[in-house]
Each structure stands twice: as C-alpha cells, then as structure tokens.
Design brief:
Layout: H1 9-25, H2 32-40, H3 51-62, E1 65-68, H4 75-83, E2 86-89, H5 107-113, H6 121-136, H7 141-156, E3 159-162, E4 165-168, H8 171-174, H9 177-183, E5 189-192, H10 195-199, E6 211-215, H11 218-223, H12 225-238
Parallel strand pairs: 1-2, 3-6, 5-6
Antiparallel strand pairs: 3-4
Helix pairs in contact: 4-6, 6-7, 7-12
Length: 245
C-alpha cells in the first residue's frame, strides 16, 4: 500500500516542479478529457496524490481504482489488474537529479499522466477490453508483443484529433515536457490510427517516437477492439515467427 507518511520534502519538491512544468505545457496540447480529468481527481502541485483520496473520486467516474505495485510488473499480473479495472501504479518519485529522464516509470508517469484519463469511460473501456484480449493470449509471446504495440501507440504515445486541433492523450507524452512539445511539432510523422499498421510497427523505448498515430475519438478507439482481435488472429494463424530479444 502507499505509505504516504514516508514521502520526503524532496519528494514533494519534485512533484511540485514536475506538476507545475507540465500544467503550463498542457493547455492547448493535452486532450480535453485529460484536462477535465485532472480537475475531477483534484490533483494539485502542492500535494502528492493520496490514493485513499483519489480512489473514491476515480471510482465515482468509471469504477476504476489504483493498485500499488513496486515497479514494472509481469504481463500476466499487469493485464489481469487492468481487466479488473485496477490500474497498477508505483508510489515512488524520481530524485531531483532525474527530473528530465528516468528509465523506469515513476509515480509522476503512472499517476499524473495516466490517472486523469481513467475518468473517461470510452478510454477505460478500450483499456479493459485490450487487457482481456491479452489475457486470452498471455502464453503467446508473439501475440503479447503485437498487443503491446497497440498499447504503446495508444495508451502511452497516442494523439487525438479534437475540435481545437491535434492533442495528446498518451501518458508517455503527457509525463514528458520534451516530448509534449516534440510530438505536436513537424519533426515526427503523424499517421491516422490504423490497427493493421500498428501491429506491424515495432517501437523503441530509448528515444522520442518517430511516428505517432492519431485517433478521431475515444469512442472510435474502443470501437476498434473487434478489428484488433481480427487482425491479431490473422497473424497468429500465419504463425509468424520473430525474435523478441
């Protein structure tokens, strides 16, 4: 569980710096659903989120809750929790010297960047449905690799076309000051969301993305679940073999 009394003055300072920096960056760049969700779960710069306070607010919106994990967890546990409307989140924060880069996701990524959008019903419906597909194929490393590409290019690094223009909904972007600006610039390639193409697109974790995929709405994202199942089945049937190393 979250040991709130263990947070240090440095932890609160780190949260405040990261929060204030991103809140300045996100208006006009983040999806409207994220900005609204940020208000609904009452995150502020001066207080590290307390899960005992966040859970009732989140549950009242979509029925989801947070589950404390020590860090990156195994695929089977990760997808099982998501399928049960439980979002796995770390409770530790990066150090002051790590403000701009951290190899393993910390609480700022898991909580600040992910949780506000968990108040959006079509978005969490997509997340839960994708996780249930993953659980049905959890012993197939190739299938999990393919589904991780969908997760990567949507939940972590997705863009959405809204009335005001192109906006960010991927948590990997929303937690990064640098990628927030980069992702909407003319430097990377922007492509329409396409399940078949994403399934055939490997990704990298060690740099900004070269390609971002754009959805038209969260309802459209959720509506793509049957296509994901169909395209995944095609690739499994073909018996495609790749190296996962």
């Amino acid at each position: 569980m979250q040991q709130y009394s263990n947070y240090t003055s440095e932890d609160f300072a780190v949260w405040k710096i990261l929060f204030e920096r991103q809140v300045q960056n996100l208006p006009g760049r983040a999806t409207a659903a994220f900005m609204e969700g940020l208000k609904r779960i009452q995150f502020t710069a001066d207080s590290i989120p307390n899960f005992e306070e966040t859970d009732p607010l989140l549950s009242s919106c979509t029925g989801w809750e947070l589950t404390v994990v020590p860090g990156i967890v195994a695929d089977d546990l990760f997808f099982k929790l998501l399928s049960e409307k439980k979002f796995p989140a770390t409770t530790w924060l990066r150090k002051m010297a790590q403000l701009d880069y951290l190899e393993e996701p910390d609480m700022f990524h898991d909580v600040f960047a992910h949780v506000p959008l968990l108040t959006n019903k079509p978005f969490v419906d997509f997340l839960q449905a994708l996780s249930k597909i993953a659980l049905r194929h959890i012993d197939d490393a190739w299938a999990i690799e393919l589904l991780s590409r969908i997760y990567w290019f949507t939940i972590e690094f997705g863009l959405i076309q809204e009335e005001g223009g192109l906006r960010i909904y991927g948590a990997g972007i929303l937690s990064s000051a640098g990628e927030t600006l980069y992702s909407l610039s003319n430097k990377p390639e922007h492509r329409p969301y396409d399940v078949a193409t994403i399934l055939d697109t490997p990704y990298r974790k060690d740099t900004f993305q070269e390609i971002y995929y754009i959805v038209d709405s969260y309802e459209a994202l959720y509506a793509s679940i049957p296509e994901i199942e169909e395209e995944l089945a095609k690739r499994i049937k073909k018996g495609t073999v790749i190296s996962l190393s």
